[in-house]
Amino acid sequence: MAQGRRVERVAALIRREMADLLVNGLRDERVGQGMVSVTHVDVAGDLQHCKVLVSVFGSDADQRQVMAGLQSATPWLRGELGRRLNLRRTPDLVIQQDRGLAEGVAVLSLLSNLEQERERRGPVPPGGDAEDGEP
Fold first, then answer.
1. Which domains does the chain have, with CATH numbers?
2. How far is residue 49's CA from residue 42's CA, in Å, rounded to a whole number?
């Protein structure tokens, strides 16, 4: 039980420090091209590995540039985390793009389009919904 709380605490610390580093510490021009936020941090139970999910807002080209910048800055970010958190061993970082928010926005857009189409067509006449398998 105590190990689980420790892992959660380390994950929260890493999330906070990574967010600060992305805003204030990282000077890579590529990362500044899109708005980047840390959405989730998953630390392995042995504290050896850490997956950081980031959400990147911007065009597809900007998103690719930001992720390339983050990948090249990973060793520096790990070193900074080690200095800031004073851990016995700083976990290896893997930074991945979290596409969940973008996918959610796309689904909401599709639902909105469907609703607009329904309003444009008007109400479905009785017997016209083809639930019984006939056209």
1. 2-121 (3.30.300.20)
2. 8
User: Looking at residue 84, what is its pLDDT?
Assistant: 92
CB 66 within 8 A of CB 90: no
Count how many residues are written for the chain: 135
| H or E, element range at 91 | none
CA distance 38 to 13: 12
Contact between residue 14 and residue 50 where contact means Cβ atoms under 8 Å apart: yes
Reported as a pLDDT band with limits 50, 70 and 90, residue 134 is: low
Q: Strands 49-57, 35-43: parallel, antiparallel or unpaired by DSSP?
A: antiparallel
Higher per-residue pLDDT: 55 or 109: 55
Is there a contact between 36 and 19 (Cβ–Cβ < 8 Å)?
A: no
Least confident of 11-25, 29-43, 118-132: 118-132
Quick check: 44 and 6 in contact, CB under 8 A? no
Pairing of strands 49-57, 92-97: parallel
CA contacts within 13 A on the Cβ side of 64: 3
